[in-house]
From TrEMBL, chains A, B:
This protein's record includes keyword Hydrolase: no
Principal EC category: isomerase
Protein name, entry field: peptidylprolyl isomerase
PANTHER family: PEPTIDYL-PROLYL CIS-TRANS ISOMERASE CYP38, CHLOROPLASTIC
E.C. numbers: 5.2.1.8
Organism in which the protein naturally occurs: Luteimonas yindakuii
Molecular-function GO terms, alphabetical: peptidyl-prolyl cis-trans isomerase activity
SUPFAM superfamilies: Cyclophilin-like
Length: 304, 304
């Protein structure tokens, strides 16, 4: 059901129920009203094998991995997390309006921890065939790609002519750092987007997931004063207590959360509520939304 | 001169100078190469009466005001700065992926310092006539507005049919907070965009300037844990030592900087160097840039 159909049905309901046919239809619901009226089926529980917990002294960042876009990288990241590859490492780069970066240095692998069962070399996974992908297209045009939309909550783009799809660099996206060679990333070096969406990176680097919770623990880190936001003083780097898969963490220690499904009529209505803000504060609804402005709500559940 | 003309002239030069007509043209210059080759006339020195210094314990944020878009608000902000209206106040809101906010609360003016010679009530300045505005249009389409471009370094949009122009909510833009009424802002309450460009605010609120330097002092502030990013613990708020106009500050204390002009062939070439990244790392040039991804370089000069 498109937002337009939703509005039409509301208009019909207003006409049928109203004592006067001339009555104005009720205003379309706001995002909050839609979420308040959501049903259990509008939400999904991410697979714990796809959730990465980045535990810092200040708290936990929860990332959902994107095996549909980067199966080889995600498999390697799972192996690395099981081996606790990143524990005791640091977030050593905080580049204002761009990214924070952590983990190994793909251009100096010898300086990092041993890879163990993980693979040193992976193919680039910049894009994939669009066939077989449940791409939920957004209604508005995008300057960077022929089509944009969501795939299970991941911001994505699609080129129907070329039959390709790829993840889009929006706020909170997790990517796998690479050197000069296209296939030089292996998931040991990771970054998260903390500023205006650097969409110029799309199709130039492998993206592996998206932060669901705890973004503020990354985005508010002090910026590095060195070139590209690297810390000149290593003491400024933020220690990583551990990076683990939720599936490897005891139930009692897991973060119970749900993500709004992005393939439902409710999600379409949420998008429409952001395309044309009806909150009373807004005087000029935009009639548009960019991919990277679309919220994908996450809710925390009480501990089981 | 458009980027296309630049490339054509470079191609002609290559053909004329090359021993073999089949030789490839040299690659277009990167952003850094363009800036390295810039001339003094490519830069401008902002008017000190349009520069606001926000001095925090951690350093100085330099803002350029936008009297072309919000003359009444800018005049009031100048008056308030002269009266040191904000000195000793705090940055009391840090909303992840949205804004930091400081100054008075326009909905509770009695709680703030006296206005003195400043005006309590101003007209909304959401947009202005596009006639008479030196709007330097960008080559790419935008989903939020019919046309986008720069006006003396300020990100802006234009509707030729309606004859209107307005500032666009990009990273680092300074806006004047308002309550429910369109004309409830007066420049006492201010915010700066610290995340993905919230363009849905365009034409809904008065924008008054843009941060030129020191963004990282605002964008990396710890996020508030209360609703909308307000600090629940007031002790988390960041003290403001002073907010002054550069023109009111002794020469020796001023920050000497220049801003790249945005109405020149060099700027067009910079935009093109970002539309199609030719840095060797990039494998897939985007062929597009969004308004809020366009850099407006600022350089610091040695103290006089």
């Amino acid at each position: 059901m498109s937002p337009r159909v939703l509005h039409l049905s509301m208009l019909c309901a207003a006409l049928l129920l109203s004592p006067a046919f001339a009555a104005d239809p009720p205003p379309p619901p706001t995002t909050q009203e839609l979420l308040d009226a959501s049903q259990a089926a509008d939400w999904r529980t991410p697979d714990p094998a796809n959730l990465l917990y980045i535990d810092l002294e200040a708290g936990r960042v929860v990332v959902e991995l994107a095996p549909r876009f980067a199966p080889e990288h995600v498999a390697n990241i799972r192996t690395l997390a099981r081996q606790r590859f990143w524990d005791g490492q640091t977030i050593y780069r905080s580049h204002d309006n761009f990214v924070v970066q952590f983990g190994a240095n793909v251009e100096d692998a010898a300086a990092g921890p041993p890879l163990g069962d993980a693979r040193a070399h992976l193919p680039a996974e910049f894009e994939r065939a669009s066939a077989g992908l449940a791409f939920h297209r957004l209604p508005d045009p995008d300057g960077w790609a022929p089509e944009v939309g969501l795939v299970d909550g991941m911001p994505a783009a699609r080129d129907p002519a070329g039959g390709l799809a790829w993840m889009a660099h929006c706020y909170g996206v997790l990517g796998a750092g690479r050197g000069m060679a296209a296939d030089s990333s292996n998931g040991t070096e990771l970054y998260v987007v903390i500023g205006q969406s650097p969409r110029q990176l799309d199709r130039n680097i492998t993206q592996v997931g998206r932060v669901l919770q705890g973004m503020e623990l990354l985005s508010a880190l002090p910026r590095g004063s060195g070139p590209l936001g690297f810390y000149e003083d290593k003491a400024q780097a933020t220690p990583i207590r551990s990076i683990r898969l939720a599936s490897e963490v005891a139930q009692a220690e897991r973060t119970a959360l749900e993500v709004l499904r992005t393939d439902t009529p409710l999600f379409d209505a949420v998008v429409e509520s952001r395309r044309n803000r009806r909150d009373t504060w807004y005087l000029h609804p935009a009639g548009h939304i960019d991919l990277c402005n679309v919220p994908v709500p996450v809710r925390t559940l009480p501990p089981r």
